[in-house]
Every structure is written in C-alpha cells, then in structure tokens.
Amino acid sequence: MMKFHSEVECRRQTSAAFPTAGLAALLLLASIPTAVAQDTGLEALIAAAKKESPINVYDSTGKIVEIATGFSKKYGLKATGMKVSANSQLEMIVREGRAGNVQGDVVLITDTPAALAQLMPQGFVESWVPPEMANKIPAQFQKPLAISTNANVWAYNTEVYDKCPVTNLWEMTEPKWKGKVAFIDPLTKGSYTDWFNQMAQHGDAEVAAAYKAYFGKDLTTKEASATAAWLKAFAANAPLVTDGDDPISEAIGAPGQKAPFFGLVSSAKFRDNVDKGYKLGLCTDLKPWVGWTYTKLGLIAQKTKSPNAAKLFIHYLLTPEGIAPQMQDGKMPTNTDIKLPEDEPSRVGDVADRLFQYDASTGLSDWDSRQDWQDFWQVNYKK
C-alpha cells in the first residue's frame, strides 16, 4: 500500500465513523461463504420464493427496471427495480438495516470497497453464490459475489485518427498531450482512486516496465511507487477534468472536430456512436493496459423477509437472460459461459485480456487510502 503523510489521519477518521469495520472486514474476507444458506436446487428455490413477499432491487443503472420486469414475467413473482446511486444505496442500506425495516432486498452496488468496509462487517448484507454457478465464476469474483465487471477504457476520435494516437500510458505525460486528455475528476469518483491504489498494489511492475518501454531507461523516482510517479506527471500535464462520462464522450467523440481530446471513458458511452453519431474508437493496444475495471456486487439484505426470492434474483442475474440488458452497455458478466453480444458498441469484450482487472482482496486498502490518493492528486494537479 502506498504511504502518505495523511494516512494516519485518514484511518483515524474511518475508524471513528465505523469503529469495528477494519478488523471485522479483514476477518470477513477470509470467511465469506459461497452460500448463505443450504441450497436444494433451483426448482426448490423457485417454490420457496413463490411463498414470499415481493422484492425490491437497488441498482445504479436504470436497466434494473427492465431486468426486474423480465424476472417477474419468468417466475410469476413480483420484483421492482429501483435506480439508486451507489452513495444513496449505502445510506439507505445502513438506515434500513439499523431500523430493521428492509426495503431493498437485493443490492447491486459498484462501490466494492465501501461494501467491504461499511455493509458486510456490520451484517447489513451478505453474499451468496448459487452452487451450480460456482464453477462458472472465477474465484476472484465470488468473495463477495460480483455480477459483472464494468470497464473504463482509453478512447480516441476515429474521424480524425486512423488508429489510437497514444501507445503508452506514459505518453500522456508528454508536452504534446498537455491539456488534451479528458479524465473524470478523482475527487468526485471513488472508483478512480481505487484504480490508483489497485495499480500500486497489483500492477506497479507493469507501470514501471511501460516507462522503460517508452523512454528507453529505468524509472527513477522519489515517489512511493511507479503508479504514483505516473499519476504525478499526468496530473501536472493539465488533463481536462470533468464530473462525469458524458462531457468526456463528447470531448473525444463529437464529429466535426479538428483537434479532439483523447481520454478515459466508460465503455457504456460507446452507445453514443449510435445514438448521437459520435466517433469513439477503443484503443486496443495501449500499454500496459487499454483500460481498467471495477466490479458490481450482487448482495442480499440479511434482514430481508424474502430470502429465497432474493437468492433467485441473484441466480437470474447470472444467466444470459438476466444480464442481457446490461451487456448492451459493455458490462461483462462474471459467468464465463456468457459472452458479450456481437453488436455491443465498444467491443470491449475483444480486449478483456488487456484490461487491468479489479482485485477485491485488497478492497479495504482501497477504502482506507481514498483520501490519501485524492490529496496526492490535489497537490499535483495543474490546469
């Protein structure tokens, strides 16, 4: 883990808000079961679910409404999909759990570190993997269960460039790209600081190797990691920071530009090519990675009055039928039997092996270091 001067203060603040989260979550990661209750088969699960009350499902995407409708029609059960931001989900789950008044029976959340630190240790939610799915989902996505991985990828304007104009992460620190790279402000989105920490923890050797491949010499730095050295140089090169993916998609892909931005954008925004006539192109060979992923967890409220219906919904999400609406946005299922459709706009599935994959085993470190990485960005960012 990268060390910063503010780390002790950050940990103190985290501990004050959640006094038992750190120790409990560490124990949790080692002991999360692959099932929270005995499973007697899908048919028995369906029969048990039909005896229970309707369920609500929280998700940060509006596609959950369509998914819940499909589930209801398939099984003759009532499920209501509710679009709720990740931050609001956290607040609602904690409040409902403490009050013993669960409204969200199934929680699909993209803030994995927060779930590991705030929700699971306190027993607000739990993870369940359908036994018959266990051999289809890689172990790294089972504790806790991730339904899908979502990608942010480096993109360019295909109307101006016949191929990706950047070949290496370190190239973005060069003067020729000063002020020309669009990037979500890490102060507004925790998944970005999680990415920094994940790179430092699991990909630092690759970042250092990319430096040598680009500059022809070994990296020499006073920073704690190659990742920190890259981030410092990148932040100082005046990237265009925004509060979301929409302005980045436009800055990169809007047609008719002479000097469009290069940038990092959600794979879901490639649908703008169809909807808005944008010219977004996916960089397929950028080193060391063409992008990075974060996970969407599928969790069940421990105090739900409909545990079997909730488990059945989790099972449904792990099937081609259940996850199909989200795959159109480039969300990659963790069930390895399911492939993205051929008409998925970004074609991110073709470069899945070149994405930096999220590793939940160090999710607590991501949580603890968020403020540190934000401070580091603030100190080094130049407009």
How does this structure look, described?
- This protein is an alpha/beta fold and 383 residues long.
- The chain contains 14 helices and 12 strands.
- α4 (63-75) links the parallel β1 and β2 (79-83).
- The chain is globular, with a radius of gyration of 21 Å.
- Mean pLDDT is 91; it is low at 3-27 and 29-39.
- Keywords: Signal.
Report a brief summary of the structure:
Residues 325-346 are annotated as: Disordered. The chain is α/β, with parallel strands linked by helices.
Provide the descriptors you would attach to this structure in a database record:
383 residues; alpha/beta; D-Maltodextrin-Binding Protein, domain 2; 2 domains; 12-stranded mixed beta sheet; 14 helices; 15% strand; globular
Q: Looking at CATH, which topology of the largest domain would you report?
A: D-Maltodextrin-Binding Protein, domain 2
- SSE class: alpha/beta
Strand content: 15-25%
- Average pLDDT, rounded to a whole number, is 91
Query: In total, how many domains does the architecture comprise?
Result: 2
Oligomer, anyone? single chain
Beta strands, count: 12
Using the CA coordinates, give the radius of gyration.
21 Å
The CATH superfamily label of the largest domain reads: Periplasmic binding protein-like II
- The outline comes out as globular
Query: Poorly predicted ranges (pLDDT <50, ≥5 residues)?
Result: 3-27, 29-39
What is the H/E string?
HHHEHEHEHEEEHHHEHEHEEHHEEH
| CATH architecture group name of the largest domain | 3-Layer(aba) Sandwich
Q: What is the end-to-end distance? A: 28 Å
Region (Disordered): 325-346
Protein name: ABC-type Fe3+ transport system, periplasmic component
Keywords: Signal
Signal peptide: 1-37
